[in-house]
Design goal:
heterodimer, A: mainly alpha, B: 661 residues, alpha+beta, Four Helix Bundle (Hemerythrin (Met), subunit A), 4 domains
Chain lengths: 373, 661
């Protein structure tokens, strides 16, 4: 960094020196241009003789050409005399001012323009050096890129996929996460935890809706381990989304009762059971969603998102619901609305409150930046 | 080294170019030698800075530094090293940087070797060069900056356009730019002379070597581009009258005219005004070519990116330089004293005829290139002007030019003797006619047109040889004397003969391949054979192959001669570059003597066959060999001592003696 500025300063100095050079070597003389012309005309005469000797030009024509060249030489001498009489008075002051301006212009223009165009703080990043660098120093995106590059070359590396998948999920790249879990299952074999995680990624991809695919994954997980809490939780959520509220509540209450006290799922299940209210899509809506085309399903999801948005206008106190709304908008690629929703949420909680900051952080992870501020 | 250092060097080069374009000009006005001399060190330092910038960018490509936007857009870490290096100029930003690098190189050469030039002329020339450099550096920094950074840096680039991943990219653009930009020197000299209001004999002596060098490079660049298109695009053609090709061909035609008129000016001080105008027009056509290719007005392989700001910026540069130079010409041309007198039948007259025909041909190509653009702009209708237009206009204008080429060097200066020239050329004429007749009667399929064309090509070649023979006195003096005289001839005479003979060879190649070519399109099953020329080709089958950054299906063919003996094999393939998912065709080419067998493959059919196009291209390599001989002629002529230096060697010797004392 410092080295860059030193080198830049040295280069600027060298450039300014190049401009100054003619003034440092004080030798005010000028060879008359006519000397060069005279030499050329002499050459022309000599060539004429050669051509004459080789018979390329006839004798009378050569004579005429010789006369022409002679006339040019005479004209040259006249011009020289005329030039000698009108030697321009050197305006030394003007010359010095121009020289100073030229020397100063070099650093002024270059540093000014570079400040405008350059990114002086940015080091060079050769690929080999980056790949050898300490991973602990690297940002998450770069770690992912390295893992992707590694997996592109070694697509059979099951462990690599298994490590990468939850990272994708945490960044909201649910589609990639689901693909990575599927690869893990294909390469390393099925397990309850893997299927449940795959199901959760699919739920994330559908903005929180437990789709048929997701439910199949959870069912698979429960087939391998009937006690897998993640799968149980989402199966209950599927029931809830189908409108089978009683069934869902029963499942969650059962989880809350059975799980050991230190399990994070115990509390979540309890809360979920408690929060089950009448609000939500009707039985008929859910039934309709079962066998829909992707476009229609998207329409329905958008309808639900609109409902959620409307509810949060009435009761803006639910941070979890705001998160769901933001993620839904991002998944639906409606970033403008996501940004607007974030504004409203921040207004409701206060941007500096703990909840507000947590929401802003969450939004950043989703790639929504709060540009309004 | 930091990428930013390269960026800073480029900005600093712009600052120096600003100084270089203004201070020497002011110095010439005020008559101050110190101010005038500022042009030289700034030109040389400017070259150093642009070279640093270019080296830094190349290093970023070699090291796959994807924190540079330009590298990320056009490179890939799996690309072979050669294509990482050539990829530096295989894109808009990098190629403009190469353009400016070569411009600075020429400017620095003038500064370093121009000590013998009259001081005001030198100051003005360097100022005009500085002005061109300023315009293009500003263009690069403000609209196409190759040093724009990308944060965060991706881990992999988007790869270079596969068509450009070829050895051709290493040679074609640098040669072409050496040609284009070399003409900037002639332009700067012309404008400097106009600013000065006087033009002298030294002027032509100085302009000619630069023009010669630029012309030789441009010849090589165009020939290389043509051969590249020939083998890479898989269409089997060597010239398509594509607007981008025309964009490089027009400066070549105008440059050829300039080269010849500069001879007249140097030797006889005639055609001064015309030469100045030609110098301006030649570089203007180079700029026009840059505009057409870089602005995205034309979409082709060459238009790496299209961006309206760039187009407007280049258009502004174009208008400023061409308009400014022509306005200056209109104001000052009358002040330039006209030179020597000559008769219509003389060396001068022949060169004027050459100039008239070449400029007419240039104008024809210009119309054919710009007409579709104008029509599209006015009516919104897309039309294309292709080979038929040029065959109807270009060929009839170019043929008489070719026919009179051998006469030029035979005529004396001032007043020539046409009958004498005919007499000297009668052997060449007879030989060409005989071969034309033989090829008409002996080679089946030969048409009258082909025979005529072959005769014309040979006429040029024999004419050039006759020129050498006459000048060394073969037939008049004994062999020993003639040989001694031949050795004593100036190199420029050999240059002329080589260039004209090369033109003849190229014509021969074009005529042979266009009239005698054989084309076969068929679906081949493995084991099937096809006849082409005197050769037989057997399809052996398709095999998959994986390269460093592509996969391909290779079609293998066994080649048999007329005597049914195996002569090796030809591989033609369809490639898929995985990074961009872009397919290319790789033609299989086998050179046999001067002719080539060209195999290009198409799609597979449902029944397991393969669509194959086979061309037999008789004497096709002569096209490029001819161009290389022309280029060689230019280089030989450039080595002529009398051309290389501004003042004769005598003065140098005196100066050296003075220093030694």
């Amino acid at each position: 960094m410092l080295l860059f500025w030193v080198l830049a300063a040295l280069m600027t100095f060298a450039a300014a020196l190049a401009v100054m050079l003619p003034f440092l070597r004080r030798r005010e003389e000028a060879t008359a241009g006519s000397a060069h012309d005279l030499a050329v005309y002499r050459d022309q005469l000599a060539e004429l003789e050669q051509e004459l000797a080789r018979g390329l030009i006839s004798r009378p024509d050569a004579q005429q050409a010789r006369a022409e060249i002679g006339r040019r030489i005479l004209r040259l001498q006249e011009e020289e005399k005329a030039a000698g009489q009108s030697v321009q008075a050197r305006r030394a002051g003007t010359v010095r001012a121009i020289a100073a301006a030229a020397v100063l212009a070099v650093p002024a223009v270059s540093w000014g323009l570079y400040a405008f165009l350059g990114s002086p703080g940015l080091p060079a990043l050769p690929l080999a050096a980056r790949l050898n660098a300490d991973p602990a120093q690297a940002p998450l995106e770069e770690l992912i890129a390295r893992a992707e590059a590694h997996l592109a070359d070694n697509p059979q590396d099951a462990r690599g996929w298994e490590v990468l998948a939850p990272v994708y999920a945490r960044l909201g790249r649910f589609g990639d996460a689901a693909a990575a879990y599927r690869r893990t299952i294909a390469l390393a074999g099925p397990s309850a935890a893997r299927h449940a995680a795959l199901g959760e990624a699919l739920v994330g991809e559908a903005s929180g809706i437990v789709t048929a695919d997701a439910e199949a994954a959870f069912a698979e997980a429960l087939g391998l381990d009937a006690d897998n809490p993640r799968a149980r939780f989402f199966i209950a959520m599927a029931r809830a989304q189908e409108g089978k509220t009683e069934e869902a509540r029963a499942l969650w209450q059962q989880m809350a009762a059975e799980l050991p006290p230190d399990s994070p799922w115990r509390e979540m299940a309890g809360q979920a059971a408690a929060s089950l209210s009448a609000a939500g899509p009707s039985e008929a809506d859910i039934a309709a969603a079962q066998d829909m085309s992707p476009e229609a399903r998207r329409e329905m999801i958008e309808g639900m998102v609109a409902g959620l948005d409307a509810r949060l206008r009435e009761e803006p106190g639910d941070a979890e619901a705001w998160r769901r709304l933001l993620r839904s908008y991002v998944v639906l690629d409606r970033r403008e609305e996501a940004r607007a929703a974030l504004q409203r949420a921040l207004a409701a909680f206060g941007a500096d409150s703990r909840e507000g900051q947590a929401l802003a952080e969450f939004a950043r992870e989703l790639g929504i930046d709060d540009e309004g501020r | 080294m930091s990428v930013e250092l390269g960026h800073f060097a480029l900005v600093l080069a712009l600052a120096l170019a600003l100084v270089q374009s203004s201070v020497p000009l002011a110095g010439a006005r005020l008559g101050s030698p110190s101010l005038m001399r500022v042009g030289e060190p700034t030109a040389i330092a400017g070259l150093g800075l642009v070279a640093i910038a270019f080296a830094v960018l190349t290093l970023a490509y070699v090291r796959s530094d994807f924190s540079v936007l330009n590298v990320w857009e056009n490179s890939h870490s799996a690309k072979p090293l050669l294509f990482k290096i050539t990829g530096t100029w295989g894109n808009h930003e990098g190629s403009m940087l190469l353009w400016v690098l070569i411009l600075s190189l020429f400017g620095a050469l003038v500064a370093a070797f121009g000590r013998n030039l009259p001081p005001t002329l030198r100051a003005n020339v360097l100022a005009v060069q500085g002005l061109i450099a300023t315009a293009f550096l500003a263009f690069i920094l403000f609209t196409s900056n190759p040093f724009t950074r990308l944060v965060p840096a991706p881990m992999q680039g988007r790869d270079l356009n596969p068509i450009l991943q070829d050895i051709g990219l290493a040679i074609h653009p640098p040669l072409l730019y050496l040609g284009y930009v070399g003409f900037s020197i002639a332009f700067s000299f012309a404008v400097a002379a106009l600013i000065d209001g006087r033009i002298d004999a030294a002027w032509a002596r100085w302009v000619r070597p630069w023009t010669l060098a630029a012309w030789a490079f441009l010849t090589g660049g165009i020939a290389m581009g043509s051969y590249w298109a020939y083998y890479e695009l898989g269409w089997g053609g060597f010239w398509f009258w594509d607007p981008v090709e025309n964009a490089s061909f027009m400066p070549w035609l105008a440059g050829t005219a300039l080269l010849h008129s500069a001879i007249v000016m140097e030797k006889r001080s005639a055609l001064k005004i015309w030469t100045v105008l030609l110098a301006i027009l030649t570089f203007s056509l180079s700029l026009l070519g840059t505009f057409l290719v870089r602005s995205g007005v034309l979409t082709s392989v060459h238009a790496f990116a299209t961006d309206p700001t760039r187009g407007v910026f280049i258009l502004a540069i174009l208008v400023f330089f061409i308009g400014g130079a022509l306005a200056l010409f209109a104001l000052r041309a009358a002040a330039l004293a006209p030179g020597g007198l000559f008769h219509p039948i003389s060396r001068e007259g022949a060169l004027v005829l050459n100039n008239l025909l070449l400029t007419t041909v240039t104008a024809t190509v210009l119309v054919g290139t710009l007409y579709p653009l104008v029509v599209e702009a006015v009516t919104g209708e897309k039309i294309s002007v292709g080979a038929p237009f040029f065959n109807l206009t270009f060929v009839p204008l170019f043929l008489p030019l070719l026919a009179v080429v051998p006469f030029g060097p035979m005529l004396a200066w001032k007043r020539g003797d046409l009958a004498g020239a005919f007499q000297r050329l009668h052997l060449a004429f007879a030989a060409a006619t005989v071969v034309a007749f033989l090829s008409f009667f002996l080679v089946d399929r030969a048409s009258a047109l082909a025979a005529l064309g072959i005769g014309l090509g040979l006429w040029l070649v024999f004419g050039a040889l006759t020129d050498l023979a006459v000048k060394s006195g073969v037939g008049k003096a004994g062999p020993a004397v003639a040989l001694r005289r031949l050795k004593g001839l100036p190199l420029s005479v050999f240059g002329t003969a080589l260039a004209h003979a090369g033109l003849g060879l190229a014509v021969l190649g074009v005529v042979c391949v266009t009239t005698l070519e054989e084309e076969h399109i068929l679906t081949m099953q493995p084991g099937q054979t096809v006849e082409a020329g005197d050769h037989r080709l057997r399809f052996e089958g398709l095999r998959p192959f994986t390269g460093p950054n592509y996969t391909e299906e290779q079609a293998h063919f066994a080649l048999f001669g007329a005597d049914s003996l195996r002569r090796g094999s030809i591989v033609s393939s369809k490639r898929l570059y995985t990074a961009r998912g872009m397919p290319t065709t790789e033609a299989g080419i086998r050179t046999i003597g001067l002719s080539q067998l060209y195999v290009s493959i198409g799609d597979e059919t449902a029944d397991g066959g393969l669509v194959v196009r086979v061309w037999w291209k008789p004497q096709v390599t002569l096209i490029w060999i001819g161009a290389l001989v022309m280029m060689l002629g230019g280089m030989v002529s450039l080595c002529d001592r009398r051309l290389r230096i501004g003042a004769p060697a005598r003065r140098r010797a005196e100066a050296a003696a003075g220093e030694a004392a």
